[in-house]
Amino acid sequence: MNRNLKLLAAGALTALALAVLPALASAEEYEAHCEGAAVCTGEITSAAISLRDDGGNVITCTLGGTTNFPTGTTTATATLHLTECREHVTFFTFKCNSPGAAAGTITTANLIYHFINLEHGGTTPGVKFTNISLTFECTGFSKKTVTGSLVGLIETASCNTAVTTHDFFFDESGTGIQKYMQLTTTGTKTDLIVSNDAGGAYTTAAIHTTWTVHWDHPAKITC
Fold it and tell me: What is this structure's pTM?
């Protein structure tokens, strides 16, 4: 192949690569759009939530919070506020809390999550919370820290349709094993890990909850 043909071939391959890359990215993450505002803010209404590790140890709470995303982005933030948190390891069901917080209260800093596609070859909107780091303690127990990523389904979500509410669903497929762990069912698996700050064994964990986000403006997921 002469030099000119090599250059043409290289240019064609580069153009093809540039054309394919956005398609690959959009297959895994979806943009969210806020209709009528630059930022959509949502209130997370009260919902029951449980955290169970692979040893069967359970903590339950009542969850609320807020969330927001700038229009035209794949990324959002959320702050969760959990109350009436209790362990279900002992008969006493002691209250659990963030260090320094009132008994039974666990709060989070801003959590980052992405709007994603859960289905390989399809369009199933979901969310993926990343870089989670949450520490809590229960009366009579050592502090524990939950880290990792959390993946969930956006229930009854319609692609490209503006709505005022979204339901985020998280579940487990086995004891302490998340039901959803991958983007497009083919990506790298992610998990939640619970460490015992007193030096105990690390365990995996799963969240079970469905919470509803009420947006202040119609929100649309572009699939």
Answer: 0.84
